[in-house]
Amino acid sequence: MASPSPHDRSRKDDEDDPVERMISRTGCAELHYAVQECMAEHQDWRVCQSQVQTFKDCMMNFQNTQKKTLMKPQPTSTESTPS
Fold this sequence. Notes:
By secondary structure, the protein is mainly α. The protein has helices at residues 18-26, 29-42, 49-71, 77-80.
């Protein structure tokens, strides 16, 4: 029996790829796919710098938003308890 090709991307494992899930949560997935498509087409990352930069900017915006959210003061348990 022949083993499946490592290049066969139709496997069910790809549907639960943690990297794909993480990128999807950022809102930058379409930009990530644009980088992948450019790389597949040109096979040269230098040609794809505009797509890479756009994806990078999106990810930086997401990270900055996350930092601001995490740095907001959280209510302590005494503040949230009704008197």
